[in-house]
Amino acid sequence: MDLSQPAIDIINPIKTSVFELFKIGPGPSSSHTIGPMKAAYDFLQLIRSDFEEKCNSVSKIKCQLFGSLSATGKGHGTDRAVLAGLLGWLPESTDPEEFSKLWDVKVHDININEQKSIVFHESDIIFDALQHDFDFSNTLIFSLRDENDTVLCSKKYYSVGGGFIQWENWEEPEVGTPPYRYRSMGELKKIMADTNISLHRIILENEKAISGLSEKEIYTKLEAIIEAMCNAIERGIYAEGVLPGFIKLSRKAPRVFKRAHSMPNTPDSFLIFLNAYSLAASEENAAGNIVVTAPTSGASGVIPGVIYMLRHHFHHRTKHIADSLLASAAIGFLVKHNASISGAEAGCMGEIGTAAGMAAALLAYAAGYSIDVLEMASEIAIEHHLGMTCDPVGGFVQIPCIERNAVGAVKSYNAYLLASSGDPGKQKVTLDQVIKTMRETGRDMSTKYKETSQGGLALNLTEC
Ligand code: SF4
To answer: How far apart are CA 129 and CA 127, in angstroms?
Structure first.
């Protein structure tokens, strides 16, 4: 096929990179840690590039957090992420141990250039209004101020979910034009039918155009992502102890893993292993350690759990897992563009629901099933997360998040079994319909169930 002549000419096709969905970085919530860290890093670059002209009288930097960043930012470590970004750290290269110790020191020097540094105090991060009129719930405003607290310059950022950031007057960056243009599963399936090209190859060719990376570079990055997922699980299944925060939640992955090992090889032990793997990655996320957004940090246990299972129980090769991960990215793209992958926008159905839909698609692809089975698997997985609220207790990504990852992984496996045992031709609900339903349900959902810790379990679980 001539790649310059797509089968369908779609206006505004999906142009998201696979590496925007799968990002290595510190937990526990991509919209509360990776996004704010990137925003702070961007602001640092801005003031570094513009410092001479504007800012000789600068004496401080302030960061105001709004919406759920204000409501749950303390529990999610948003303040630590902001500081890390202002220190010039990036999520993918952050040392988890150094990161965890950042606020042991309450005052830091932000180096602007060789001559100038600005003293930054913990109190320079302001947990501001929960309700506001900005374009996105998770808003940050960084400002440079003089000694009278007069704002010399400022920039407003939005953490829009999954570690993505935008800012006021943000425009979609120019990226290469993907050869295969789609916005819905219906359009994607038509391309596949017209061209007879596999799903992972379509996503791969698009990724080459969007990111400018070669095929080899893309697979190298995918392998690093798979290793980071597996490393998180291997740390988590042996890490005993209590997670950070006042809940004092004990890690349970090591115990569940030991239990699976002590059992005969049965369907029960299989499910307990899968639960243990997902719990392990989620507990690493809750501890603020390095995980992979899939598609968010809060949901960073579902796909890794399934991948670890494919690698260690089904003995799939890394290349095959990488191809299946590419195929699963198609589901993440469709939800991101037609609904939301952010708990602050769509509740937990946007995070765990999307992750389960992607994991179900990954399982179907790895097993060699058709696109119809893959669609049905991801549709079933997402359908049975519709309406799921986000109500993290104390603002920590622990209750209900950790168990929810394990249940999401098992649910994705069940969705895959249902789809691969059923008849896709008789399935009444399409993936596009369930994603549309997610968008509408998210729009109607009360704000208190969107990562604000103002409702649900967050209110009723007061004794920890
Ligand atoms: S409840 Fe779900 S969406 Fe909310 S923080 Fe936890 S995992 Fe994320």
So the answer is: 7
Examine residue 131 and state whether it is found in any structural domain, yes or no: yes
Q: How much is the pLDDT for 113? A: 82
pLDDT score of 3: 42
Residue with the larger pLDDT of the pair 440 and 160: 440
If one residue of 303, 393, 401 were mutated to test the ligand 1 pocket, choosing by the most ligand atoms within 8 A of its CB, it would be: 401
Report yes or no: 305 and 289 within 8 Å, Cβ to Cβ.
no
Question: Under a CB-based contact definition with an 8 Å cutoff, are residues 401 and 282 in contact?
Answer: yes
Q: Do 321 and 401 share a domain, yes or no?
A: yes
Non-local CB neighbours of 364 within 8 Å, separated by 6+ positions: 373, 374, 377, 378, 416, 419, 420
- Of 301, 322, 285, nearest to 409 (Cα)? 301
How buried is residue 198: exposed, middle or buried, by Cβ count under 10 Å (0-12/13-18/19+)?
middle
User: In whole angstroms, what is the distance from residue 275 CA to residue 280 CA?
Assistant: 8
**Overall number of domains in the chain:** 2
Q: Which atom of ligand 1 lies closest to the CA of 299?
A: 7
Distance from the alpha carbon of residue 361 to the mean position of ligand 1, in angstroms: 21
- Quote the pTM value: 0.84
Q: How far is the CA of 50 from the centre of ligand 1 (A)?
A: 38
Instruction: Give me the domain span that covers residue 405.
Output: 175-460
Angle in degrees, 0-180, between the axes of helices 354-366 and 302-312, rounded to the nearest 10? 20
The pair of three-digit structure tokens given for residue 183, joined into one six-digit string: 């916005």
On whether both 219 and 343 belong to a single domain, the answer is yes
- Averaged pLDDT, 21-39: 90
| Amino acid identity at 80 | R
Amino acid in the structure at residue 246:
F
Average pLDDT over residues 94-115: 83
Ligand 1 pocket: which residues have CB below 6 Å? 29, 298-299, 343, 348, 351-352, 390, 392, 397, 400-401, 404, 451
Element (H, E) at 159: strand 151-161
Instruction: Using a pLDDT cut of 90, give the percent of the chain over it.
Output: 74
Look up residue 309 and give its amino acid. M
Residue pair 83/24 in contact (Cβ under 8 Å)? The answer is no
114's CB contacts (< 8 A; 6+ apart) are: none
Is the pLDDT reported for residue 1 higher than 60? no
CA–centroid distance for 375 within its chain: 21
Query: Token digits for 296?
Result: 């968010």
Same domain as 226, residue 373: yes
203 CA to centre of ligand 1 in angstroms:
28
Together in a domain, 259 and 388: yes
User: What angle, 0 to 180 degrees and rounded to 10, lies between the N-to-C axes of helices 215-236 and 318-338?
Assistant: 90
> Which H/E stretch holds residue 253?
helix 253-262
